[in-house]
Amino acid sequence: MRLQLSPEDQAFREEMREFFTTQVPEHIRAKVLARQELSREDMIESQRALNAGGLAVPGWPVEWGGKDWTQLQRHIWHEEMQLAGVPAPLAFNASMVGPVIANFGSQEIKERFLAKTANLDIWWSQGFSEPDAGSDLAGLRTTAVRDGDHYVVNGQKTWTTLGQYGDWIFMLVRTNPQAEKKQQGISFLLIDMTTPGVEVRPIE
User: Is 156 helix (H, G, I), strand (E, B) or coil?
Assistant: First the structure.
């Protein structure tokens, strides 16, 4: 049995191929195809090119920059992006915190963060793992205690990939140490990494 794309999906593939090979800078694509390390600037430039064409966050709700694509079209988008040597949108932004904000954030939070997240105006870091809590996140010890309109956070996160570039961090913290089960009492906070008291250190 031979499977073929419909004329519409073939046209979609050609549209993606044309965009990726003409709108994303060649010097960035050449690095990817040569398996060279990308700089922060490379990744931002590439994602902004995708976002300008409406192709950075197709999985998000349409009102926030997503696309009403079929699963096949999403596959074609991803495949053609790889074939062209285009860096995938930063996962922390596009696949992790963005969808959470889009689905669960208040209107104020959505308006504050989503457009900047899609365009990589904000570089998000992931604050899940800790020295004693990796795949078992129920063991996390970082605490957040409510103090008026703020939370006071104490703890440490590790294995924060590309965290040296981060502007903000989405972090799992323990807000109820008395919860019946250790998997409960955990909250998801968005923290400005320029906040006094936040320290970023490399793993040597």
Answer: coil
